[in-house]
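Need tokens for this chain, all 108 residues.
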Amino acid sequence: MQEIQELEVEFDEDGLLKYPALWTEAVAAEIARIDGIGELTEEHWQVIRTLRKHYAKFGAVPAMSHICHNHGKDKYWIHKLFHTCLGAWRVAGLPYPGEEAKTYMSGM
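Here are the structure tokens for all 108 residues:
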């Protein structure tokens, strides 16, 4: 996986940050660029903030459909913004979610 040299972050074999504590908004923007998501909009940041807040509180992946519902969006909102739910997780700089969660997020 590609490294963001100037930001000194590395990715694991799943494309997630090896050291999530190094995540910054600049890192998120660069991951989005690398992943072909483009410039992060306020809608992207709504998802990123929600994911990070949920993970900080519960240490787990939220049901992505609940995130969409809570923001008043259709169930494909995250997919439209990030290509996959795992893409959103990646841009949010969160750690490996576990194999079952990774599979769930990759398919969406």
